[in-house]
Design brief:
This protein has about 150 residues and is mainly beta. Strands 1-10-9-4-3-2 form a 6-stranded antiparallel beta sheet, with no helix packed on it. The chain has a 4-stranded antiparallel beta sheet with strand order 5-6-7-8, with no helix packed on it. The protein is about 10% helix and about 30% strand.
Length: about 150
Amino acid sequence: MSEAPETSPAASRRTLLCGAAVLAAGGAVALTGCGSSSGGSSSGGSDKGGAAKGPVDLGPATDVPVGGGKVYREQKIVVTQPTEGQFKAFSAKCTHAGCIVDQVKKQQIQCPCHGSRFSVTDGSVQEGPAPSPLPSYAVAVEAGNLKVTAS
């Protein structure tokens, strides 16, 4: 009685599909979904929030509405203006699973992945599952443009 286990074909398909995905994607990106259960970690020269060290010119301060904010997705920065002339900058990388927040609505910075909500005033968690506040950055208005420096 030497029958192959029932899971053998599924494992072979998974291996074949992961191998094909690796080849199609050029190797590096597809490996993240094909590995074992050893949780990966990101490494690199960026700060804890993932934004460039700065200063980063984000453009006109007038793009950020009073009582709201704007997500600068490419720079991984969110800038809010809780009251007129008062600008706050935070990492746009959610502290729960690392998703990039997608909007500032109802005076909250909102993450689309698992529903975390953060304060536009100080980046504190207002609704989980995020375990900690968004890291804050220094922000200044120079010649009408927002300049953000990750600390």
